[in-house]
Design goal:
- The complex is a heterodimer of chains A (about 110) and B (about 120).
- Chain A is built from no helices and 12 strands.
- With about 110 residues, chain A is mainly beta.
- In chain A, strand 7 and strand 8 form a beta hairpin.
- Chain A is globular.
- In chain A, about 35% of the residues are buried.
- By secondary structure, chain B is mainly β.
- Chain B is built from no helices and 11 strands.
- In chain B, the strands form 2 sheets. In chain B, strands 2, 4, 5, 6, 9, 10 and 11 form a 7-stranded mixed sheet that branches. Chain B has a 4-stranded antiparallel sheet with strand order 1-3-8-7, with no helix packed on it.
- The radius of gyration of chain B is 14 Å and the shape is globular.
- The chains are: A mainly beta (about 110), B mainly beta (about 120).
- Chains A and B meet through strand 6, strand 10 and strand 11 of A and strand 4, strand 5, strand 9 and strand 10 of B.
């Protein structure tokens, strides 16, 4: 089965600190895309970062970076210098079966001031 | 258009009625996806299209759900004989090209249609 697992229903981080959100997945594909999406209370879906499986280098977007471990099928998101505006639900997603983009159940991130 | 547009934003319908949810993707986008999202959960894949061709409908829950994209642009998700369990946010997303064919492929999401069946 092509699944995405986010094992942390909820995480908290102090403002300006660093937090890591976990994601593991299952696929028989050799090439695929992985994504982290942010969903604030407005319920928009905002792309945070993207990783292509054929690339060894971990993707980075400003304060957001990933730790992609292809063999372990792990794709964690690190948020550095956390800000109040980072508080949201975060979804890990991947094109793990052809072009079908599948999502995890999400992790609620709370940022404390 | 500038973004993915969905209409209506909110729909309240009585159990047993049919509903049609519309998605207008970003102009020129080849792929179009439909998802259903319950509160506090991740989007659940329903179906997707490349151009007008429905590529995968494995996520449609049952035969009351159908989708079409006749001219390769606007898509309609239809739910017949609605039931209370159909209540959810229905989301549409589009991408310029199918995943795997372009390095900058990403899915852009609409604001969603919140469906409530009473």
């Amino acid at each position: 089965a092509q699944t995405v697992t986010q094992s942390q229903p909820e995480m908290s981080v102090q403002e300006a600190e660093t937090v890591t959100l976990s994601c593991t997945y299952d696929t028989s594909e050799s090439d695929y895309y992985l994504f982290w999406y942010k969903q604030p209370p407005s319920r928009q879906m905002i792309l945070v970062i993207r990783q292509e499986a054929y690339k060894q280098q971990n993707a980075t977007e400003n304060r957001f970076s990933v730790n992609f471990q292809k063999a372990a099928k792990s794709f964690s998101l690190k948020i550095s210098d956390s800000q109040l505006g980072d508080a949201a639900m975060y979804f890990c997603a991947g094109t793990l079966y052809g072009n079908k983009l599948v999502f995890g159940a999400g992790t609620i991130l709370r940022v404390k001031s | 258009g500038a973004g993915v547009s969905q209409s209506p934003r909110y729909k309240v319908t009585k159990r047993g009625q049919d509903v049609a949810l519309r998605c207008d993707p970003i102009s020129g986008h080849v792929s179009l996806y439909w998802y259903r999202q319950a509160l506090g959960q991740g989007p659940e894949f329903l179906t997707y299209f490349n151009y007008e061709a429905q590529q995968d409908k494995s996520g449609l829950p049952n035969d009351r759900f159908s989708a079409e994209r006749p001219e390769g642009s606007i898509s309609t998700l239809t739910i017949q004989r609605t039931e209370q369990r159909d209540s959810a946010m229905y989301r549409c997303a589009s991408s310029l090209s199918p995943f795997g064919t372009g390095r900058n492929t990403e899915a852009f999401f609409g604001q969603g249609t919140r469906l409530t069946v009473v």
